Amino acid sequence: MQRHLLRRRALLASAGLAAAAPALAACGPDITSGDDSGESNILKAPDKREGEITIWDRSGDLFEVFEGVIADFNAVYPDIKVNHVAVDIDAKLQNTLITGADVPDGVFLDDAKIGGYTDYLWDLSEVLAPYAGDIAQQKIDVNTVDGAIYGVPYDLNPGLLFYNATALEAAGVDAAAIETYDDLLEAARQYKAAVPDAGPIHLEQSAFLGQLQLEMYANQLGTSIADADGQLRLDSPEYLRILEFLDTVRTEGLGTRAEYLTPTDVAEMDNGNQVFYPWAIWFSFAPQQMLTETSGDWRAMPLPAWDADGARSGAMGGSSFVLPKDGANADLAWLFYEFLMFDEVGYTAVWGPNDTYPTGLNTSIPAYEPAADPAAPLFEPVEALGGQDLWAVATEAGAQIPGGTPTPSWWDGAVDYLGNDIQRMLDGDMTPEEVIDSSTEQIQTNLVDRQ
Amino acid sequence: MTATAKPERRTRPRIGSHVFLMLLLVAFLAPVAWALVSAFKPAGDIVSSPLTFDPSEFTLDNYRAMFQDVPIGQGFFNTAVVLVFKGAITMFFAPLAAYAFAKYRFAGQNLVFGAVLITLMLPTIVLIIPLLLEMKALGWVNTYQALILPGAVDAFAIFWMRQVISAVPDELLDAARVDGCGEFGIFWRVIVPVIRPGLAGLGVLTIMNIYNDFVWPVVVASDERMATLQVVLSTLAQNITGNRIGADYATVTGELLAASSVALIPLLVLFISLQRHFINGILAGSVKG
Amino acid sequence: MTAVTAARSAGTNRKRRAGASGVRRRLAPYVFVLPFVAIFLAFSVYPLFYTARLSFTNWRGTGAAEWVGWENYTYLLTSPAFWSSLGNSATLWLLIIPAQLVLGVLVAVLLNSATLKLRGLYRVGFIVPFVTPLVAVAQIWVVLFDRDYGAVNALLGLVGLPDVGWLTTSAWAKPTLALLFLWKTTGFIVIILLSGLQSINGSIYEAAAIDGASKPRQLWSITVPLLRRTIMFAVVLQTLAVFQMFAEPFVVTQGGPYNSTTTAGYYLYNHITRADLGTGAANSFLLVILVMVLSLMFVRMLRAKD
Question: Which H or E run includes A255?
């Protein structure tokens, strides 16, 4: 019996310990220290051009692509050694920045995540000044917080309307006539009349990607979840309009509900049920790698407009390169990114034919406008899109993307509310108005107010 | 030790037991078998037709791509280093401390054991940032000691070993004292042999935990040269779990299954060889009542 | 039974009497725990205090930390999301623990039999899921439990059952996750129970067999009572694991659909990835208190039956 008493005493002692911990703790973050706002956060171009830089990228195809550019970079800057590493950025970056231990000089980062890290990053407005006028406005905007630019814009991801041209033609639907979302609904109805089993338009079932797609539509209408001051602006006619469009697709049975490129999604495309896919340019990966039956049948066009003369595209996703202040040679890393993004040799090596992609990298286009010239394609026509010149479609759509706003640091967190509520609406459990009211309140309480 | 425990004496065929165990075994092994087999399928097929296997399509491409893309050899080496040192520290110091907790009374015993219980109940994820700040202050980021020392004598090992050692009759210890055994001698010559099955269990668990731990290594070993096997795996997997955008989903899945197979095999071999150790432990460890 | 209890308390008495002898004997425990305590203080207790202090601040990892008192705790305690994360974990607990104990005891007892054939195969086989890296398991689960193409629904289809949205409906996501956890950790529970079984003296069974007790009866009235400490130990352990569970939902469901698999541990993790370190710390201490209360309850149950 004694043993149990001992265990009980130990448990009680541990309870006491927990209660006493705050009083005992002489450690922890310095509560009185101010921030070091006196220092300049503006990165200057380096004087010397030698040293070693550590660059973080996600593993996978892009890592290979960037790896291939290092030799070209070293041809121009022979004394800068690039230590290029593939890391789990999502898992590691926050901890590394908070602790300031072994901080890399440059990191590949989703645009949506930049807002959360600005305290740790160099303001690049001075080094970017010569190029800023030539960079897609949307990319400058998402990287700008309080007048400072925190990322070297990498890619632009214009939203496009991917469609199965062969299936539509067989059903007698003229895809070329689609100019507005009303036209899209009409085309979907026609297709459905011809193919009764069809759910012509993709309805995204992943809460995260559904919210990302919502922001694409919103960007097209010139708005976003929060304004430049971080104030929520979900409760607006624009958002209501988008949600009502999605709700119409659902109620009229015009949609196929699936998660992006999961087996179900792929099968519904391959069997001709799902023929419209409004998505970012990176969907082009699907006909090239995932679709078996209908690869070659698909084409891309700019998104329909919300109003007759409205913008025909909006951005969905995208990444930039950030330079942490604690990196030892961030200024040299800037030279690397400058070469990669703004030097013809650099951007040609990224998007043009390379070892990883023999016909070029066609899942995004450069954010730097001189590189994104519709008349001077970097990647080749896409076989899986019936040899279509995706470059011309994407760059012309990209030029129409309205400006944006910095993505709030809590954007990912909003998926728990807005992303989920969109799904509830697609389940038929919420109206568009309810989505807006509920999400606005939850995001305000749990995210905006707790910043 | 001849009066070995024989809980089941009758030897009539136990068909029912075998059917039950076999069905369960199939359920337990099928998913892993699926992964091992699928790693030899073309990457696209793994996702699009997961349940078929066409031997004529047998390919080593996933393995080839994986060995080319990720530093899995370095991962194995680093994991082995951590395994040897961290494992040795745990396997020696945890039972030793647990012995003190179970069989002695000393000042501060309850306080320390209470603290052990708290850390056992505390989700480890919350300690990562404080620990990382500590590693930075010590200058240990990207070092083997950072991978080895934190958690080397973890609360669970203490808790479990204390439990196991408590069950050893005090008569055995007293008898050893009468025979002139020192305090450490009792631990080494009496406790350790008697609790060998428990130690084997702890060994299994320790190896497992160290081998498969990824949360801490991912954050503390940012340098590729320090990446353990699981860091390599999780770097691959992030393309699937974290963010599917633009990632070559099928290729990564193929590489991940190949890498997982490669990671699993040493552990399996180890356990099959430890199996004998288990049984020996059972025979040697049975205590006369 | 009575004989065993008597022997145990006699041992305890003798230990108490012998406790006063020898300086070496009094110093020994300090030497034995010293290496552990050193490592423990440096890498567990220090971060623990640090975290405790963080829980009263709004520190986000950079700049100054502001002392906010109990604000983080009151936010959590009044947040429906916090309570629903606890509810999700409690549901998972109910789905996992009873099933795991029944399965674990059955398998352990069968495997403990010295005459069982293929014992080695079973022992290794059951531990395989436990040693498989979680990142691989996650992929396996996603593919096997796919609504339209998964093997599980294909099997259900063979016997005429309808497809189930295992991972895509909030009703089924928790059972699917529970199944993963059961599959992954039952082998480990079997090991623990086996180590407990090995300390049971075989002669008790011989006596019972002579008395004519059937196998199931022996299991229920001899094995289970003698194994009670080990079983409780497993329950406490798995309770900790279930309430801290985060990697499984993280890799398989990302907490969805509709946060139905946002476990207590995953909810906590969300604060930390959003750099809300103070709330994360407060959340973890609330979990500690909860788990402590549960553990005390189990210990009390164990004692009441002794």
Answer: strand A255-258
pLDDT tens track, chain A, 451 positions: 344 444 444 444 444 444 444 444 444 455 544 444 456 789 999 988 899 999 999 877 788 899 999 999 999 999 999 999 888 788 788 888 988 888 999 999 999 888 889 889 999 999 999 999 999 999 999 999 888 999 999 999 999 999 999 999 999 999 999 999 999 999 999 999 999 999 999 999 989 999 999 999 999 999 999 998 889 999 999 999 999 999 999 999 999 999 888 878 888 999 999 999 999 999 998 999 888 899 999 999 999 999 999 999 999 989 999 999 999 999 999 999 999 999 999 999 999 999 889 999 999 999 999 999 999 999 999 999 999 999 999 999 999 999 988 889 889 889 999 999 999 999 999 999 999 999 999 999 999 988 7
Contact B222 A263 (CB under 8 A): no
**Residue A231 in contact with partner chain B when CB distance is under 8 A:** no
Residue C213, C-beta contacts closer than 8 angstroms, at least 6 positions apart:
C221, C222
Establish if C51 touches chain B: CB-CB under 8 angstroms.
yes
Provide the CATH number for the domain around residue C164.
Answer: 1.10.3720.10
Task: Report the C-alpha gap between A198 and A254 in whole angstroms.
Answer: 7
Mutation for testing the A interface, residue in B245, B251, B253 having most A CBs under 10 Å: B245
CB contact under 8 Å between C131 and B264, yes or no, is yes
Task: Return the number of other C-beta atoms located less than 10 Å from residue C143's C-beta.
Answer: 22
**Contacts (Cβ under 8 Å, ≥6 apart) of A45:** A126, A127, A331, A334, A335
Chain B CB within 8 Å of residue A102 CB: yes
CB atoms within 10 A of CB B178: 8
Choose among C45, C113, C280: nearest Cβ to B115.
C45
Domains of chain B: 14-59 (no CATH), 70-285 (1.10.3720.10)
Q: Does B70 touch chain A (CB under 8 A)?
A: yes
Closest CB to C209 among B9, B129, B212: B9
Q: Among B103, B112, B243, pick the best mutation site for testing chain A contact (most A Cβ within 10 A).
A: B243
Backbone angles phi, psi at C78, to 5 degrees: -105, 5
The answer to whether the Cβ–Cβ distance between C139 and B14 falls below 8 Å is: no
Structural domain of C135: 79-305
- Identify whether C159 is part of a domain: yes
Is residue C26 assigned to a domain?
Answer: no
Distance CA C290, CA A390 (A): 57
Buried b (16+ CB within 10 A) or exposed e, A9-47: ebbebbbebbeebeeebebbbeeeeeeeeeeebebeebe
DSSP state of A262: S
Residue A162 pairs with which residues in a beta bridge?
A277, A300
Give chain B positions within 8 Å (CB) of C272. Answer: 125-126, 128-129
Contact B50 C146 (CB under 8 A): yes
- CB of A331 closer than 8 Å to CB of A357: no
Identity of the residue in B256, B267, B271 whose CB atom sits nearest the CB atom of C135: B256
Domains of chain A from N-terminus onward: 51-157+317-372 (3.40.190.10), 159-315+399-450 (3.40.190.10)
Cα–Cα distances in Å, from B111 out to A11, A324, C159, C289?
9, 43, 58, 17
Q: Does the distance separating the beta carbons of A92 and B114 come in below 8 Å?
A: no
CB contact under 8 A, C35 and B153: yes
Q: Of C139, C259, C147, A106, nearest to B238 (Cα)?
A: C139
Please tell me which residue of chain B has the smallest CA distance to C223. Answer: B7
B248 touches chain A (CB under 8 A): yes
Q: Quote the CA–CA distance of C13 and C8 in Å, as a whole number.
A: 9
pTM: 0.83
Q: Do B248 and A60 touch (CB under 8 A)?
A: yes
Please report all neighbours of C, defined by 3+ CB atom pairs within 8 A.
Answer: A, B
